Amino acid sequence: MLMYLQMIDGPAARDKFEILYDEYLGLMLYVAENILGNRQDAEDVAHDAFLSIMENLEKISEPKCPKTKTYIATITENKAIDLYRKKQRLSQEGLDETMPGAVVPYAGENSLAQCILKLPARYREWILLKYHQGYTNQELEEILGISRAAIYKLDQRARSFLEDLCRKEGIL
Amino acid sequence: MISEERLRQAAQEAGEALLESLPDPADCDASTSLEFQAKMAKLFRKNHRRPIRQMLRFAACMMLVLTVSVSAVLGVSTEARDFVFGWVSARIEGA
After folding, report:
1. Closest CA–CA distance from residue B48 to any residue of chain A (Å)
2. Interatomic CA distance for residues B44 and B48, integer angstroms
């Protein structure tokens, strides 16, 4: 009972949401506009992303930190891809394999990190949410709003695609 | 096969590279349409009502637990049933 009472948000949650809005709205519009190419769709995506963020507010511990910035950008990218898919009437699977993520320059020496950055957007965001942000499959079900079966499938496909890419690059 | 640990380390580096590639939020254009502002105002109101909704949900859960527990006890124990029905009868006759 105490645990449940602790989950009930107070003014702090409201403040957190407002801080996130003030801090990251511009960034979210920038990320979405880069994928969708127009401002109106970018605004729709930002709204959807805020809705998802609000429902998972307890998963953000500190509103102004690098981890939150990456989380917000990843969620926005995910929502932008969803909207893009709807508009193009593409199947989920086909798009997952083909939609490239934004180009991220990487000067480090970790070849696996290089391969992760080369993954299609959907797979890259999955790997980053799971292995960089550290969310569990159950948390990702809520964040991405997809079923357990879809989560399992996404995990399998992302890892398999990454392994194929690593083989091509001669890492594996 | 890529080990979980190796993947975690690489994802850490990839995440940092992604972070560096993102512009500073303060440098991004945050101007929005009136339509968007109206939708967000609605969302803010919804967020403000969250604690009330959560309290109501909590109260509903407690009521459900109580109802199920009392029903279970009444279903199993004849003494409890006699006591409750006796008390109810006494209240009705007294009224």
Report:
1. 6
2. 6
A window 61-120, beta carbon within 8 A of B: 66, 69-70, 73, 102-106, 108, 110, 112-113, 115-117
Question: What is the mean pLDDT of each successive set of 10 residues along chain B, which is 95 residues long?
Answer: 90 92 91 94 85 86 95 92 90 83
Per-residue pLDDT, A50: 94
Q: How far is B10 from chain A (nearest CA, A)?
A: 4
Identify the residue whose tokens are 């190796």. Answer: B6
Report the pLDDT averaged over residues A23-36: 94
What is the mean pLDDT of the segment spanning A109-138? 92
State in Å, rounded, how far the first CA of chain A is from the last one: 50
Cross-chain residue pair A47–B19, CB shorter than 8 Å: no
Q: Which residue has the tokens 């440098």?
A: B27
pTM of the model: 0.75
Tokens of A66: 């690098």
Q: Identify whether the C-beta of residue A117 lies closer than 8 Å to the C-beta of residue A104.
A: yes
